[in-house]
Amino acid sequence: GQQVMQIPQYQHVQEGEDFTTYCNSSTTLSNIQWYKQRPGGHPVFLIQLVKSGEVKKQKRLTFQFGEAKKNSSLHITATQTTDVGTYFCAATVQGAQKLVFGQGTRLTINP
Amino acid sequence: NAGVTQTPKFQVLKTGQSMTLQCAQDMNHEYMSWYRQDPGMGLRLIHYSVGAGITDQGEVPNGYNVSRSTTEDFPLRLLSAAPSQTSVYFCASSWSFMYQETQYFGPGTRLLVL
User: In whole angstroms, what is the distance from residue B77 CA to residue B10 CA?
Assistant: First the structure.
């Protein structure tokens, strides 16, 4: 079954509004990665989090890894039309050599 | 560097036909993997390889075979295509899975099985 659950599945916002997507796992994760996929494109790596409680920022994007290393979030401040796409989290379960993806959150923006 | 390349870009098959999806990378990456992407299901791991000669199953391996005879190539074989295998297939590679490196994805192959 799906080891990494991602919510929401869809999110529609007005341009300028904030956006957040969440990833949760019932098991402890070694790391978590975030990817963005533009419509019709392929996933592109955004960032990786490894440490418990880690927070990283990329301009308007803020990524967090939970203290228990079982959840993560991606927050976009003041969305722009260029942020449109599907955001995926991907995680390695401790002891495994497999990268498991969440279902993704598809973000659409009303200009 | 071409990065990760996949061929073909599009393919239509009839039920029961077999075919091979090609994946190649020129970055000398050890780790390669195949995913399928279906609406609302995200990316599901089919098979992966941590180096030449070594492969293992992912979440949804049934109906697919892989081999890794060289570092560069990681073909995915559909043994007897079924409509349930209609999907977009992505190949990905990274330097080494042990260090949980960035995955570089190919452009994808869109497969329709009739």
Answer: 15
- In terms of Cβ atoms closer than 10 Å to its own Cβ (0-12, 13-18, 19+), residue B40 is exposed
pLDDT confidence tier of residue B96, bands split at 50, 70 and 90: confident
What is the pLDDT confidence band of residue B39, given thresholds at 50, 70 and 90?
confident
CA distance linking residue B73 with residue B92, whole number of Å? 11
* Residues, chain B: 114
**Residue B39 token pair:** 């609406």
Q: What is the pLDDT of residues A38-60, one digit of tens each?
A: 999 999 999 999 999 999 999 99
Contact list in A for residue B92 (CB cut-off 8 A) is 43
Q: What tens digit of pLDDT does each residue of A80-108 get?
A: 999 999 999 999 877 777 788 999 999 99
Residues of A in contact with B90 (CB under 8 A): 42-43
Residues B41, A103: C-beta atoms closer than 8 Å: yes
Kindly state whether B97 is in contact with chain A, defined as any CB-CB distance less than 8 angstroms. Answer: yes
What are A9's strand-pairing partners? none
Please report which confidence band the pLDDT of residue A2 belongs to, taking 50, 70 and 90 as the band edges: low
Chosen for mutation from B103, B104, B109, B110 (greatest number of chain A CBs closer than 10 Å) is: B103
Residue in A with minimal Cα distance to B50: A97
